[in-house]
Amino acid sequence: MTALQHVLESHIDSGALPGAVALVADHDRIEIAAAGSAHSDGTHPMTPDSIFRIASLTKPITAAALLLLVQDGRLGLHDPVDDLLPELANPLVVRTPAGPIDDVVPADRPITVFDLLTSQAGFGFASDFTLPAAQPLFEVQRDGREPQSFPPPDEWMAALGRVPLLGQPGTTWLYDTCSAVQGVLIARASGSSLPDFLAERLFEPLGMVDTAFTVPAAQRHRFTSYYRHGEHGLELADAPDGQWSTPPAFPLGSGGLTGTAGDWLRFARMLLADGVAENQRAVLSPESVTLMTTDHTTPESRALGELFLEGQGWGCGGSVDIATLEPWNIPGRYGWVGGTGTSAHIVPSTGSIAILLTQVGMDSPVPDPWIRDFWSYTATFTRA
Question: Is-contact 320 312, C-beta < 8 A?
Fold first, then answer.
């Protein structure tokens, strides 16, 4: 048993996880472990190519897709989004985040493409869920782990447009919502659906054959079940023939994709290679990769949403480590975690990659013990 296998097995033996797949890579050195079962009944052993709901590991992929449209010249990085997203034109902003929801002022300026890419448009989840202006957002930005609960994009955007911003555009980092809006913007700017655009411009060039918003029937034998914590332990929240068996009305750029560790490895290697795929095909420009992996926040902009960040800022679609709070925090480390128990990061300075896929939902923004144990292992792997 490898050390990585032991990290996974310890949490499976305790009953915390039915199974997991983990991968760590450092240039040409790679270690992958699959442990436990794809389902809690133990009848289907986990394999390296098991398919998971990757949740918010979707966010960096969506940001990369939006940057492709910037590269194409269809969008300008600092262009207002009013023409393509008229629902967000002339937004109102609460005078103070803790103030009454009807105490609003006009936005100082329009929301831009860059605001959306960096999650600083003014809407999203704050650390304090009790803020008056946060309440209507919960009716719009539902649990992304239940994609079939979302209405079609146009209906969703109309509802979002009625929610006041918690901060002026470009000044306040808030979580999640901007990535969903990015997906809508990609579809409207490209004239294609988000699933088709991602497939054509990212998944096919990179060979990400199992990354999609649905899992076809022929591949569901590889699709893991998904669990949530319940009163009596882990409870089934979604089976392989559940919410990802049919196309959603709203393909969520914030968290709707499924995929494998191998697929996200291909995406990660492309980022580490300045946008070039393993087949030597240029996918993203070096400038786009730099935009993704550079922190665009300030201490002031992070303050309202700091619950979601631990020694991190935010690039485009993912966090960027800026403080060494733990052994795994390396300045410039880029990636994110997903609410279905997933984690994926790259470290440009060392060329390392770390991916963990589990099937147990997170109950808070604070990563679960098995994620932290995996991160601890990655710190020793990169030093070896």
Answer: yes
